[in-house]
Amino acid sequence: MASSSDGRSFLVRASAGAAMTPGEYVRIIRRDGADLLGFVEEVTGHDSSGVSAAGSLIDDGSAVEPTPFLDATAVPSSPDSVVQVVSGPDRELELGRLVSMPSVGVGLVARRLNRHTFWCGQSGSGKTYALGVALERIILRTRLPVVVFDPNSDFVKLDTARDGVDPAVGDALSERDVRVLRPGTGPDALRVRFVDMSPRAKAAILRLDPVLNRGEYHALLRLAPALQGVDAMDIPARMREVGGLDGEALAQRVENLGLLEWQTWAYGHEAATDVIANRPAATVLDLGAFHSGDEQLVVALAVLEDLWARREERRPVLLVIDEAHNLCPPEPEGPLGVAVRDRIIQIAAEGRKFGLWLLLSTQRPSKVHRGIVSQCDNVTVMRMNSPGDLAELADLFGFIPRAMLAQSARFRQGEALVAGGFVAMPSIVRVRDRITLEGGIDVRVPMP
After folding, report:
1. Helix, strand or coil for residue 133?
2. Strands (E), 187-244
3. 371-394 residue pLDDT tens
4. What does the DSSP assignment read for 18-78?
5. Are the beta carbons of 206 and 224 closer than 8 angstroms?
6. Whole-angstrom distance, CA of residue 70 vs CA of residue 5
7. Spatial distance between the Cα atoms of 30 and 134, rounded to a whole number of angstroms
8. Which residues partner with 72 through β-bridges?
9. Residues pairing with 391 in the sheet
């Protein structure tokens, strides 16, 4: 039997043999004939006296009034009624299928991608594969441009359909403008311009403190107009020419740090910021192909700074930061790492109203600055064994039923808990198959 004190939540008391799991659905029939759908959030009991379940009644848009009731009947729900709730308006945006009801697909709510998203799961949970599925759906079924910061080269084949994919889907993918930028030469080289960056970003690259290195820092500010249009290789000479003693010290710093040897600089060619400004369907920045972590940080900083400088244009873009702990850890090393993290903190706090939306993927919440994670309204959790990590997720995201979150320790590879605005209801899903190739793969164990 089911009861409700407010018409919006419910309690069910079932026999000891009944099986209920958080995240499942029940059909509740009131005495007046009203047929309601209930979402189970918590289950207690499981003893000889029976099972108790509590949850929310789902507003399906019908004219049924939220009236309290005492003695309604609770029966298992049908897939048809659940589909209407969780599949979403666009069935092609389906992320996966309910684990508890495999015939029911769970779709992303495209209009709610305008919120920051946190995506986590321990190593081996299928986190990167599942993220690829979500990106494919977004690229194919929306016109929201995507920028992927890809430190492990996992998404560099996001433009290539797998063998055996439905030809219509493959054709649709080929029609979308997906740019993959890599270090090197050629039209798809991953480059940025030093002279276009803000003084703060330039100082971070040069490891300049505005107080401790006040002479060089001031020279950098003063020389900025003189460096516009100067080829990167000629920058030290220009600094010496017009900068005096502080310009000489600044030039020596550039040379001592070996900045001119980096593959990062555009040298008059198209920069990654130019590509992104044109808003292709997706731009994958293959950071994993750089030899040094500083070069990865410089590219990330240049792109983030440029997007922030253009924020008043209010042109939406989804910024996907895979292995986010590389770019926004709680305690980054060096001024360059601090500059990148601080810009991401600013985008997390203020970027949403400008159309700068983050999707952060990492192994555990504690590896990313808490001020960034706390700004996320959409969450995907894959297998997580650590009680501490689960407790932190529960603390950060109160809209996830704790009993559902606890199940993540038992998830199989490819299973995920999705919650927040980008899905209609918190759901445990088995992620659908990819349509594009994976870039990075695990190294296999040698066998006889």
Report:
1. helix
2. none
3. 999 999 999 999 999 999 999 999
4. ----TT-EEEEE-TT--EEEEEEEEEEEEETTEEEEEEEE---SSS-----EEEEEEEEPP
5. no
6. 8
7. 39
8. 2
9. none
Q: What is the DSSP letter of 257?
A: T
> Is the pLDDT at 159 greater than 80, yes or no?
yes
- H/E run at residue 174: helix 167-175
| Phi, psi for 205 (deg, rounded to 5) | -65, -40
Give the type of residue at 215.
Answer: G
DSSP code for 444: P
Identify the residue with better confidence: 13 or 317. Answer: 317
Does 223 score more than 80 pLDDT? yes
Q: Which residue has the tokens 């993927």?
A: 361
The more confident residue out of 99 and 224 is 99
Whether the Cβ atoms of residue 381 and residue 408 lie closer than 8 Å to each other = yes
pLDDT of residue 4: 92
Q: How many CB atoms lie within 10 A of CB 342?
A: 17
Going by C-alpha positions, the residue among 201, 207, 165, 166 that lies closest to residue 333 is 207
Coil, helix or strand at residue 406: helix
Q: Output the pLDDT for position 1.
A: 86
Tokens at 174, concatenated: 């080929």
The dihedral region occupied by 447, where left means phi > 0, alpha psi between -120 and 50, and beta the remainder, is beta
Q: What is the pLDDT of residues 122-137, one digit of tens each?
A: 999 999 999 999 999 9
Give the SS3 label for residue 224. Answer: helix
Q: How far are the Cα atoms of 42, 138, 283, 435 from residue 171, in angstroms, in the given order?
A: 45, 16, 19, 12
Helices (H), 282-358: 293-309, 334-350
User: In which order are the strands placed within the sheet that holds 94-98?
Assistant: 105-107, 94-98, 427-431, 415-420, 378-381, 117-120, 356-362, 317-321, 146-150, 282-286, 178-181
Residue 443 has pLDDT above 60, yes or no: no
Residues in the chain: 448
C-alpha–C-alpha distance, residues 235 and 117, integer Å: 40
Rounded to whole angstroms, how far apart are CA atoms 97 and 86?
10
Structure tokens at 161: 């359909």
Cross-strand partners of 434: none
Q: How far is CA 30 from the centre of its chain?
A: 41
Q: Is 200 exposed, middle or buried, given 0-12, 13-18 or 19+ CB atoms closer than 10 A? A: middle
pLDDT of residue 153: 93
pLDDT cut 70: percent of the chain above it: 96
